Amino acid sequence: MVEWDIRKLQILRTLRERGTVTATAEALRMTPSAVSQQLTNLAKQVGVPLLEAQGRRVRLTDAARLVLRHAEAVFEQLERADAELAAYVQGEVGEVRVGAFSTAVPALVVPAVRALRAAHPGVVVRVREAEAAEAYELLAAGEVDLALSLAAQAPAVGDPRFTRVPLLADPLDVALPKGHALATAEPLRLADLAAEDWIFGGSGPWSDITRGACEAAGFSPRQGHSAAGWTAILAMVEAGMGVALVPRMAAVRRGGVVMRAVGEERPVRHVVAAVRRGGEDAPVVARALEALRGAAAGQSV
Fold first, then answer.
1. Rounded to whole angstroms, how far apart are CA atoms 257 and 262?
2. What is the average pLDDT score of the chain?
3. Model confidence at 156, in pLDDT bands (50, 70, 90)?
4. In this structure, what are the phi and psi dihedrals at residue 55, rounded to the nearest 5 degrees?
């Protein structure tokens, strides 16, 4: 098997185009003796003569033309590789893998993917729905490039493995049954709902967020029912079984549920993205973060 040398093939190709060793040397900024030496070495490598004398000049043999015919395909592919590599360096092509919690997928990730498709069609996003703890395990293991979570679930700010990128302060609204006495109250304060049954998960981040918001308003919420999915929570609110705090970007509109912003308290949950330390400098990851920031800005409107 011949060990092909691209540089020598380029010299042979240039000789075919320029016609003389001297002209080839000028075009490639080499000395004529260096050109001759490289072509002699190439002929030894392939085991056949590549040049033959023609008066005071040389011409390519049939074997040289055969070699160049196949080399052209190599040069063409290398040109494509150069073009694709340049596009990759500029963040125009590549793949980014995103792990995200459930409500972030439709609210942030899907709009970001749409924006990327329109502006940078060569960037491919692979989405993996995952709870926050799992998303960071995947990120640490190199199975995703970017993880979305709530700030309360994200790695500590000082964790040397990751860089955190704030995306959104998502307002928490109160979900009330349509006929509730406070459904139209102005203004509405969380403290006004201290005597209500509340619906939230028995443990985990949403339980902590609900309890924290209510305690900041001066009371401890009485848990009437436990549920983790927003469809189940809002169905119970619609049935008059209690009230709930619902993040604005997660709310699914139901005819029997009134969503109310809460006065001056304005509780929020903070959504963050995280990448492996230094990963934010990868062009396609930077593109994805840019698109996620745009989607987050749209949610804030």
1. 15
2. 87
3. low
4. 70, -125
